[in-house]
Design brief:
single chain; TIM Barrel; 2 domains; 8-stranded parallel sheet; globular
Length: 273
């Protein structure tokens, strides 16, 4: 399992090079330079040139790249670019649908995050997750909703997407991947909504989220950080466990090995935040 911390992965358009440095400075755990949805067709090749020039001028910078889909005419050139440029540390593959496509993206030696955005991708999820080079999984809620015929934003659509979230979590665990990333929260001016969204994702076992605006980064990090009461509980659990007490009661709750491990996880999350 990868131990790379990725609570937030922030998209920045590949045709807006003036935003690259700002994105890298905003505190996100990963910055994804987007060659796909954020870039119009006439700017695709230029986006590659912009990023290459930026990384040449900033050799310590490290970014991910969301390439175009496997059927796009720029796809092969973008994979080749990612493979040869040291500053690109990983590839995000949109509309990942089969193991062969994901394996091809990994041939350049960079980590891969497949984005599940279709029914076919869901069907192939078990094989995709087991592909060598995959670091973790994520999904595109809007594209997947469209492909499945869901009404995006409707409460019943969210019930269906919860099945997707479960599948991502299950296959991440089976493949020993890092925890999956939640999809984007489109209303970037809704801080309280983002807190609820990320809090729910955390409760479901997700390790972080995709971000579309720098202001979302600090909110997501704050939401993922254990509260003072959680830290106090975890410390008291581990103090009692360190006494060799075996199973014991604390605050009216039975504490055994799984609860002790949860306390360790709380403290680790605090150290990572």
């Amino acid at each position: 399992m990868s131990n790379v911390l990725m609570r937030t992965a922030l998209f920045v358009p590949g045709n807006r090079p003036e935003r690259f440095a700002k994105a890298l400075a905003c505190g996100a755990d990963a910055v994804i330079v987007d060659f796909e949805d954020a870039v119009q067709e006439t700017d695709k090749a230029a986006a590659r040139e912009h990023l290459g020039q930026f990384l040449d001028a900033n050799p310590d910078a490290r970014v991910w790249v969301r390439v175009n889909t496997v059927h796009h005419q720029q796809h092969a050139a973008e994979l080749a670019f990612c493979a040869r440029v040291p500053g690109v540390i990983g590839v995000m593959l949109p509309k990942a649908e089969c193991q062969a496509d994901v394996a091809r993206a990994a041939q350049g030696g960079k980590a891969v995050i497949p984005i599940i955005e279709s029914a076919e991708g869901l069907l192939g999820l078990a094989d995709i997750a087991q592909t060598k080079g995959v670091q973790r999984l994520t999904y595109g809620g809007l594209d997947l909703s469209l492909d499945l015929g869901l009404v995006a934003g409707h409460s019943d659509a969210e019930r269906m997407l919860d099945q997707v979230r479960f599948a991502l979590l299950l296959h991440s665990r089976l493949a020993r991947l890092a925890p999956p990333l939640e999809t984007v929260f489109a209303r970037f001016d809704d801080a309280s909504g983002l807190e609820r969204f990320m809090g729910a994702a955390q409760g479901m076992g997700f390790g972080g989220m995709l971000c579309i605006h720098p202001t979302q980064v600090a909110i997501a990090h704050r939401t993922l950080r254990p509260s003072e009461s959680q830290l106090d509980w975890a410390q008291r659990v581990l103090e009692r466990a360190g006494d060799g007490a075996g199973a014991f009661q604390l605050d009216g709750q039975m504490v055994d090995a799984p609860v002790i491990q949860r306390a360790r996880n709380v403290l680790k999350a605090a150290r990572d935040s």
